[in-house]
Design brief:
Layout (H helix, E strand, L loop, with lengths): L1 E4 L2 H4 L2 E3 L5 H14 L3 H11 L8 H4 L20 H9 L3 H14 L7 H9 L4 H17 L3 H29 L6 E3 L2 E4 L5 E4 L5 E6 L17 E5 L16 H8 L1 H10 L4 E2 H8 L3 H13 L3 E6 L2 E6 L1 H8 L8
Length: 332
Protein backbone atom coordinates (compact mmCIF):
# COMPACT_ATOMS: atom_id res chain seq x y z
CA UNK A 1 0.00 0.00 0.00
CA UNK A 2 1.24 3.47 -0.94
CA UNK A 3 0.04 6.31 1.29
CA UNK A 4 0.42 9.79 -0.20
CA UNK A 5 0.09 12.48 2.47
CA UNK A 6 -1.21 15.86 1.29
CA UNK A 7 -1.35 19.29 2.83
CA UNK A 8 -3.78 21.99 1.73
CA UNK A 9 -0.94 23.55 -0.22
CA UNK A 10 -0.32 20.28 -2.07
CA UNK A 11 -3.90 20.17 -3.37
CA UNK A 12 -3.24 23.43 -5.17
CA UNK A 13 -0.06 22.03 -6.69
CA UNK A 14 -1.30 18.82 -8.30
CA UNK A 15 -0.52 18.65 -12.03
CA UNK A 16 -1.43 16.17 -14.73
CA UNK A 17 1.41 15.53 -17.17
CA UNK A 18 0.71 16.78 -20.67
CA UNK A 19 2.06 13.64 -22.37
CA UNK A 20 3.87 10.35 -21.84
CA UNK A 21 7.29 10.34 -20.18
CA UNK A 22 9.63 8.38 -22.50
CA UNK A 23 11.84 7.15 -19.64
CA UNK A 24 8.95 5.78 -17.61
CA UNK A 25 7.52 4.20 -20.78
CA UNK A 26 10.93 2.65 -21.47
CA UNK A 27 11.10 1.18 -17.97
CA UNK A 28 7.54 -0.13 -17.89
CA UNK A 29 7.58 -1.45 -21.46
CA UNK A 30 10.65 -3.51 -20.54
CA UNK A 31 8.53 -5.04 -17.76
CA UNK A 32 5.85 -5.92 -20.29
CA UNK A 33 8.35 -7.52 -22.66
CA UNK A 34 9.95 -9.58 -19.92
CA UNK A 35 6.77 -10.68 -18.16
CA UNK A 36 4.94 -11.57 -21.38
CA UNK A 37 1.68 -10.95 -19.49
CA UNK A 38 0.24 -8.35 -21.84
CA UNK A 39 -2.68 -10.47 -23.02
CA UNK A 40 -5.09 -9.22 -25.63
CA UNK A 41 -4.28 -5.57 -25.12
CA UNK A 42 -0.51 -5.43 -25.62
CA UNK A 43 0.14 -8.88 -27.06
CA UNK A 44 0.45 -7.63 -30.66
CA UNK A 45 2.95 -4.97 -29.55
CA UNK A 46 5.01 -7.57 -27.64
CA UNK A 47 5.10 -9.93 -30.61
CA UNK A 48 6.13 -7.19 -33.01
CA UNK A 49 8.67 -5.59 -30.68
CA UNK A 50 10.63 -8.59 -29.43
CA UNK A 51 12.56 -8.91 -32.68
CA UNK A 52 13.45 -5.19 -32.62
CA UNK A 53 15.07 -5.09 -29.18
CA UNK A 54 18.74 -3.99 -29.56
CA UNK A 55 21.46 -6.13 -28.01
CA UNK A 56 22.53 -3.17 -25.85
CA UNK A 57 19.20 -3.41 -23.99
CA UNK A 58 20.89 -6.03 -21.79
CA UNK A 59 22.43 -3.12 -19.87
CA UNK A 60 18.91 -1.95 -19.01
CA UNK A 61 17.33 -5.31 -18.26
CA UNK A 62 19.81 -6.11 -15.49
CA UNK A 63 18.55 -2.97 -13.73
CA UNK A 64 14.84 -3.40 -14.48
CA UNK A 65 13.54 -6.67 -13.02
CA UNK A 66 9.91 -7.31 -14.00
CA UNK A 67 9.04 -7.45 -10.29
CA UNK A 68 10.84 -5.33 -7.71
CA UNK A 69 12.80 -2.11 -7.48
CA UNK A 70 14.52 -0.39 -10.41
CA UNK A 71 16.97 2.48 -9.77
CA UNK A 72 15.29 5.86 -9.58
CA UNK A 73 18.00 7.45 -11.74
CA UNK A 74 16.67 5.57 -14.80
CA UNK A 75 13.62 7.88 -14.84
CA UNK A 76 15.07 11.35 -14.13
CA UNK A 77 12.62 13.93 -12.85
CA UNK A 78 13.36 16.69 -15.35
CA UNK A 79 11.26 18.66 -17.79
CA UNK A 80 11.75 18.99 -21.51
CA UNK A 81 11.85 16.26 -24.12
CA UNK A 82 13.54 12.90 -24.51
CA UNK A 83 16.93 14.48 -25.20
CA UNK A 84 16.78 16.39 -21.91
CA UNK A 85 15.94 13.23 -20.00
CA UNK A 86 18.75 11.30 -21.68
CA UNK A 87 21.21 14.03 -20.75
CA UNK A 88 19.95 13.96 -17.15
CA UNK A 89 20.52 10.19 -17.09
CA UNK A 90 23.98 10.57 -18.63
CA UNK A 91 25.00 13.13 -15.98
CA UNK A 92 23.43 11.43 -12.94
CA UNK A 93 25.38 12.49 -9.82
CA UNK A 94 27.67 9.74 -8.56
CA UNK A 95 26.07 9.82 -5.11
CA UNK A 96 22.64 9.04 -6.59
CA UNK A 97 24.04 6.16 -8.65
CA UNK A 98 25.67 4.64 -5.56
CA UNK A 99 22.57 5.17 -3.39
CA UNK A 100 20.24 3.68 -5.99
CA UNK A 101 22.45 0.64 -6.56
CA UNK A 102 22.59 0.09 -2.80
CA UNK A 103 18.80 0.30 -2.68
CA UNK A 104 18.61 -2.15 -5.58
CA UNK A 105 20.50 -4.70 -3.52
CA UNK A 106 18.31 -4.13 -0.45
CA UNK A 107 14.96 -4.34 -2.25
CA UNK A 108 15.94 -7.17 -4.60
CA UNK A 109 17.81 -9.52 -2.24
CA UNK A 110 17.59 -12.48 -4.61
CA UNK A 111 18.77 -10.53 -7.66
CA UNK A 112 22.34 -9.29 -7.79
CA UNK A 113 23.82 -7.11 -10.47
CA UNK A 114 26.76 -8.60 -12.35
CA UNK A 115 29.86 -7.50 -10.42
CA UNK A 116 31.42 -5.71 -13.36
CA UNK A 117 28.19 -3.82 -14.03
CA UNK A 118 27.87 -2.76 -10.39
CA UNK A 119 31.49 -1.60 -10.18
CA UNK A 120 31.43 0.26 -13.48
CA UNK A 121 28.23 2.11 -12.70
CA UNK A 122 29.24 3.02 -9.16
CA UNK A 123 32.67 4.24 -10.25
CA UNK A 124 31.57 5.63 -13.63
CA UNK A 125 34.28 3.45 -15.16
CA UNK A 126 34.66 3.67 -18.92
CA UNK A 127 31.57 5.86 -19.23
CA UNK A 128 29.23 3.13 -17.92
CA UNK A 129 26.37 5.54 -17.15
CA UNK A 130 26.82 7.09 -20.58
CA UNK A 131 26.54 3.65 -22.19
CA UNK A 132 23.38 3.09 -20.18
CA UNK A 133 21.98 6.33 -21.66
CA UNK A 134 23.04 5.14 -25.13
CA UNK A 135 21.20 1.85 -24.54
CA UNK A 136 18.07 3.77 -23.50
CA UNK A 137 18.35 5.91 -26.64
CA UNK A 138 18.64 2.84 -28.87
CA UNK A 139 15.76 1.02 -27.18
CA UNK A 140 13.36 3.95 -27.36
CA UNK A 141 14.34 4.66 -30.95
CA UNK A 142 13.82 1.12 -32.24
CA UNK A 143 11.09 -0.28 -29.98
CA UNK A 144 8.94 2.67 -28.87
CA UNK A 145 9.33 5.25 -31.64
CA UNK A 146 7.30 3.27 -34.22
CA UNK A 147 4.34 3.43 -31.82
CA UNK A 148 5.02 6.77 -30.16
CA UNK A 149 2.29 8.82 -31.78
CA UNK A 150 -0.30 6.21 -30.84
CA UNK A 151 1.13 6.02 -27.32
CA UNK A 152 0.90 9.81 -27.08
CA UNK A 153 -2.68 9.79 -28.35
CA UNK A 154 -3.74 7.23 -25.76
CA UNK A 155 -2.12 9.16 -22.91
CA UNK A 156 -3.66 12.42 -24.15
CA UNK A 157 -7.07 10.78 -24.20
CA UNK A 158 -6.64 9.68 -20.59
CA UNK A 159 -5.50 13.16 -19.60
CA UNK A 160 -8.59 14.67 -21.21
CA UNK A 161 -10.76 12.30 -19.20
CA UNK A 162 -9.00 13.35 -15.97
CA UNK A 163 -9.43 17.02 -16.85
CA UNK A 164 -13.15 16.44 -17.35
CA UNK A 165 -13.33 14.80 -13.92
CA UNK A 166 -11.43 17.78 -12.48
CA UNK A 167 -13.84 20.26 -14.04
CA UNK A 168 -16.89 18.37 -12.77
CA UNK A 169 -15.75 17.27 -9.32
CA UNK A 170 -12.42 18.89 -8.46
CA UNK A 171 -9.30 17.05 -7.38
CA UNK A 172 -11.40 14.82 -5.11
CA UNK A 173 -12.98 13.28 -8.22
CA UNK A 174 -9.60 12.85 -9.94
CA UNK A 175 -7.93 11.17 -6.98
CA UNK A 176 -10.88 8.87 -6.23
CA UNK A 177 -10.93 7.55 -9.80
CA UNK A 178 -7.19 7.38 -10.38
CA UNK A 179 -7.11 3.58 -9.99
CA UNK A 180 -9.63 0.92 -8.85
CA UNK A 181 -7.65 0.54 -5.62
CA UNK A 182 -7.57 4.30 -4.86
CA UNK A 183 -9.04 5.39 -1.52
CA UNK A 184 -9.05 9.15 -1.03
CA UNK A 185 -9.86 10.65 2.36
CA UNK A 186 -8.15 13.97 2.88
CA UNK A 187 -5.30 14.25 3.70
CA UNK A 188 -4.24 10.75 2.60
CA UNK A 189 -4.51 8.96 -0.75
CA UNK A 190 -4.16 5.17 -0.35
CA UNK A 191 -3.44 3.14 -3.43
CA UNK A 192 -2.23 -0.39 -4.29
CA UNK A 193 1.55 -0.73 -4.22
CA UNK A 194 3.94 -3.71 -4.04
CA UNK A 195 5.40 -2.58 -0.70
CA UNK A 196 4.36 -0.46 2.27
CA UNK A 197 5.47 3.10 1.54
CA UNK A 198 4.58 6.61 2.72
CA UNK A 199 5.11 9.67 0.54
CA UNK A 200 4.85 13.00 2.38
CA UNK A 201 4.42 15.76 -0.19
CA UNK A 202 5.19 18.58 2.25
CA UNK A 203 3.95 21.36 -0.01
CA UNK A 204 5.82 20.15 -3.11
CA UNK A 205 2.64 19.10 -4.93
CA UNK A 206 2.24 15.96 -7.01
CA UNK A 207 2.66 15.18 -10.69
CA UNK A 208 0.14 12.65 -11.98
CA UNK A 209 1.84 10.85 -14.87
CA UNK A 210 -0.46 8.71 -17.02
CA UNK A 211 1.46 5.82 -18.52
CA UNK A 212 0.70 3.64 -21.52
CA UNK A 213 2.71 0.62 -20.34
CA UNK A 214 1.82 0.79 -16.64
CA UNK A 215 -0.56 -2.17 -16.32
CA UNK A 216 -1.23 -3.07 -12.70
CA UNK A 217 -0.57 -0.87 -9.67
CA UNK A 218 0.67 2.72 -9.96
CA UNK A 219 4.33 3.37 -9.22
CA UNK A 220 6.57 6.14 -7.94
CA UNK A 221 10.13 6.84 -6.85
CA UNK A 222 11.53 4.95 -3.87
CA UNK A 223 13.49 8.04 -2.78
CA UNK A 224 11.03 10.41 -1.03
CA UNK A 225 13.40 13.35 -1.58
CA UNK A 226 12.88 13.27 -5.36
CA UNK A 227 10.13 15.44 -6.93
CA UNK A 228 6.85 13.62 -6.16
CA UNK A 229 5.31 11.76 -9.11
CA UNK A 230 2.62 9.09 -9.28
CA UNK A 231 2.74 7.05 -12.50
CA UNK A 232 -0.61 5.37 -13.11
CA UNK A 233 -2.23 3.12 -15.76
CA UNK A 234 -4.51 4.53 -18.42
CA UNK A 235 -7.63 2.98 -19.92
CA UNK A 236 -6.62 2.06 -23.47
CA UNK A 237 -8.75 2.25 -26.56
CA UNK A 238 -9.42 -1.07 -28.20
CA UNK A 239 -7.44 -0.51 -31.38
CA UNK A 240 -4.43 -1.82 -29.48
CA UNK A 241 -5.79 -5.34 -29.48
CA UNK A 242 -7.68 -7.31 -32.07
CA UNK A 243 -9.21 -10.73 -31.53
CA UNK A 244 -8.21 -12.85 -34.51
CA UNK A 245 -11.75 -14.09 -34.93
CA UNK A 246 -14.94 -13.22 -33.10
CA UNK A 247 -16.67 -16.05 -31.25
CA UNK A 248 -19.70 -17.46 -33.00
CA UNK A 249 -21.68 -18.11 -29.81
CA UNK A 250 -21.48 -18.17 -26.01
CA UNK A 251 -19.79 -21.58 -26.00
CA UNK A 252 -16.96 -20.29 -28.18
CA UNK A 253 -16.50 -17.26 -25.91
CA UNK A 254 -16.42 -19.52 -22.84
CA UNK A 255 -13.81 -21.70 -24.54
CA UNK A 256 -11.74 -18.59 -25.27
CA UNK A 257 -11.72 -16.90 -21.86
CA UNK A 258 -13.33 -19.44 -19.52
CA UNK A 259 -16.99 -19.94 -18.53
CA UNK A 260 -17.01 -17.71 -15.43
CA UNK A 261 -15.30 -14.81 -17.18
CA UNK A 262 -17.61 -15.20 -20.17
CA UNK A 263 -20.63 -15.11 -17.85
CA UNK A 264 -19.35 -11.98 -16.08
CA UNK A 265 -18.63 -10.25 -19.39
CA UNK A 266 -22.09 -11.13 -20.69
CA UNK A 267 -23.65 -9.87 -17.46
CA UNK A 268 -21.92 -6.53 -17.93
CA UNK A 269 -23.49 -6.16 -21.36
CA UNK A 270 -26.67 -5.22 -19.48
CA UNK A 271 -24.97 -2.21 -17.92
CA UNK A 272 -22.54 -1.17 -15.18
CA UNK A 273 -22.71 -3.21 -12.00
CA UNK A 274 -20.93 -3.72 -8.70
CA UNK A 275 -19.03 -6.91 -7.91
CA UNK A 276 -21.77 -8.43 -5.78
CA UNK A 277 -24.47 -7.85 -8.37
CA UNK A 278 -22.28 -9.31 -11.12
CA UNK A 279 -21.58 -12.37 -8.99
CA UNK A 280 -25.33 -12.89 -8.57
CA UNK A 281 -25.96 -12.53 -12.32
CA UNK A 282 -23.13 -14.92 -13.18
CA UNK A 283 -24.07 -17.47 -10.51
CA UNK A 284 -20.80 -17.33 -8.56
CA UNK A 285 -19.44 -15.95 -5.30
CA UNK A 286 -18.31 -12.35 -4.84
CA UNK A 287 -14.66 -13.30 -4.10
CA UNK A 288 -14.53 -15.52 -7.18
CA UNK A 289 -16.14 -12.81 -9.30
CA UNK A 290 -13.61 -10.26 -8.00
CA UNK A 291 -10.71 -12.51 -8.99
CA UNK A 292 -12.05 -13.06 -12.51
CA UNK A 293 -12.91 -9.37 -12.93
CA UNK A 294 -9.27 -8.53 -12.15
CA UNK A 295 -8.19 -10.80 -15.01
CA UNK A 296 -10.76 -9.23 -17.36
CA UNK A 297 -9.59 -5.76 -16.39
CA UNK A 298 -5.94 -6.64 -17.03
CA UNK A 299 -6.97 -7.88 -20.49
CA UNK A 300 -8.72 -4.53 -21.12
CA UNK A 301 -12.12 -6.21 -21.45
CA UNK A 302 -13.51 -4.52 -18.35
CA UNK A 303 -12.80 -1.20 -16.65
CA UNK A 304 -13.51 -0.42 -13.00
CA UNK A 305 -14.00 2.75 -11.00
CA UNK A 306 -14.99 3.73 -7.49
CA UNK A 307 -18.46 5.13 -6.87
CA UNK A 308 -19.09 6.05 -3.25
CA UNK A 309 -18.45 2.85 -1.30
CA UNK A 310 -18.63 0.42 -4.22
CA UNK A 311 -16.51 -0.53 -7.21
CA UNK A 312 -18.48 -0.40 -10.45
CA UNK A 313 -17.42 -2.38 -13.51
CA UNK A 314 -18.02 -1.50 -17.16
CA UNK A 315 -17.49 -3.56 -20.30
CA UNK A 316 -14.98 -1.80 -22.57
CA UNK A 317 -15.33 -1.39 -26.32
CA UNK A 318 -12.95 -4.32 -26.75
CA UNK A 319 -15.04 -6.46 -24.42
CA UNK A 320 -18.23 -5.56 -26.24
CA UNK A 321 -16.58 -6.31 -29.59
CA UNK A 322 -15.59 -9.73 -28.26
CA UNK A 323 -19.16 -10.38 -27.10
CA UNK A 324 -20.57 -9.33 -30.47
CA UNK A 325 -17.99 -11.19 -32.55
CA UNK A 326 -16.70 -8.02 -34.17
CA UNK A 327 -13.17 -7.30 -35.35
CA UNK A 328 -11.63 -4.13 -33.96
CA UNK A 329 -9.05 -2.34 -36.15
CA UNK A 330 -5.53 -2.44 -34.76
CA UNK A 331 -4.66 1.08 -35.89
CA UNK A 332 -6.65 4.27 -35.77
Amino acid sequence: MLRVHFTGEDLGRIRIATGPDPMWEMLLSLHRLRRRDSGVLLGPWVRESLSRVPATTRMLTVLTPPVGYSPDFLTPAVGGGFADRLEALRTTPLRQVVNDLTEFGIQNPGRRLPTICRRQLAARESGAVGRLADAAHAYVGTVLDPFWERIRAQVSRDRARRMTALAEGGWDAVLRTLHPSARWEYPVLRIAFPVEQDLHLGGRGLLLQPSFFCRHAPTTFADPALPPVLVHPIEHETHWATPEAGPADGRALAALIGPTRAALLAALADGDAATGELARRAGTTAPNASRHLTALREAALVSSHRHRNATLHTVTELGRALLEGRNVPLTA
